[in-house]
Amino acid sequence: MSNSLEPNQKNAGVHRVALDEDEIDVLRSKEEIAKVIERIGFGPGQSIIMLACIMGWLGDGMKPLLLSFILPSMAKDWPETSSIERGLVASSLFLGMLIGSFIFGTVADKIGRKSTLAITSIFAIGFTVAASFSPTPWVLMLFEMGLGFGVGGNLPVCYTLFVEFIPQKRRGFYLALLATAWSAGEVIAAAIAWGVMAEHGWRRLLQISTIPTGAILFVLPFIPESPRFLLMRMKGRRAFSILQKIGNRNRRPIPSHIEGLIPYHSTTSSGVSSRKRELLAPLKRLFNKQNRKQTVILWLMWLCASCGLLGVIIFLPDYFHAKGIGNMSIYEDIFLSTTGNVPGIIVAAFLIETRLGRKKTMAILSFLCAAFIFVLGPVSSATYLIVASAISKFFLYGLWAAIGKNNFEGVSFPIAK
Q1: d(CA 4, CA 223)
Q2: Model's pTM, two decimal places?
Q3: What's the CA angle centered on 56, arms 53 and 57, to 5 degrees?
C-alpha cells in the first residue's frame, strides 16, 4: 500500500513521494511545520527573537540618515572634496547593501540564520567604527561600502528569521511592526544628531549608532535557530524541540499526539544540495516560470520606492542647506521631518486590510508620495519644507510597508536568499 504527501504541498514546490505503511504510520504522528507554528501562536516564546530583529532593523534604519549628515560635514573636514567624491560616498553604502543582501542571503541558507546574523552584525559594527576614523573621503567610501555589506546582509536575515517564527494569520501585522523599527531608527538617528552633531561632529554620531546593532550580539546566545532552516537540514528533532519550548512559553503546548515535523521533500532542498557551488541558483529560482512575473513586479516596485525614500533621506539635509536653513536649526528640522515615518506605516497597514486592499493602497500612496515630493521643489520656507517633507515621508514609509507586506504573497520556498 502506498500514499503521498498532501496535495496542497504541490504549490510549495513539493514532489509527491511514495510511502510504505510504516512510513505512513510515522507521518501520522507528525505535522507540517506551518501548522505547528499556527498551533503555538505568537507570544513570549518569540519575544527575544522579535527584540533581536527589531534592534537589527532599527540600527540599519539609522545608517542612511547618518550618511546624509556626513555628506554636508565632509566639506569641513576635507574642503577639497568634490561633488563627485561625495556622490561616490553616498553610493558606496547602497552598493555594499546590494552585494551583502545577495551574498548573506545565500550564506544564511548554508550555515543558518543565527550564525549569519552574528556575522552581519559584526560587519556593520566594525565598519561603522572604522568609518568614524576615516582620514580621507576615499577611505570613508571603502568603509561605507563595508558597512553597507553588513547592513545589506542584516536586513534579509532578520526578516527571514522573524517571519519563520510567525503564524501566517498574523504575519502581516508583525511584519508591519518590524517595518516600524526601520523608520524608528531614522527618528532616533535624527534625535541623536540634534544633540550630538553641534559639539561632537559626525564621527561620534557614527560611534553611538552602533549601540542597537551591538545589542543583537548580547541577545543572540538566547535566540534559537530557525526551525524551518533546521528542518531543511534534516534536523527535525532539534526543530521540533525548539517549537515545543516556544509553545510551552506561549501556554499553547503542542498536542501530545504530535511527535515531530514532516520534513521537506522539495525542489528547494534538493536544489540547494545538488547546486551547492552555483551562486546564481537563487536568481534562477526567482526567474523561473512560476516566480518570474512576481519577481519583476516586486523589483520594480522596490526600485521606485527606494529611489523616492532614500533620495529624500540622503539629500534632504543638503537641500535644507541649499535653501538657506542655518546649521543650528537643521538637525531639529530634520528630526521634525521624520515625525510622519511611523504613522505612515501604521495607516498603510490598516488601509491594506480594508476594502482598498493592497493594490489600491499602493497606488494611492504612490501618487501622494510623488505629489508631495514635487512640492518640495518650489517651496523655500523652512516651515513649509518641514511639513512637506514630513508628509512625503508619511506616504513613502506607508508605501514601503505596503510593498513589504506584499512580499510574502505567493512565496513558495522558505529561504533567506
Answers
A1: 35
A2: 0.78
A3: 90
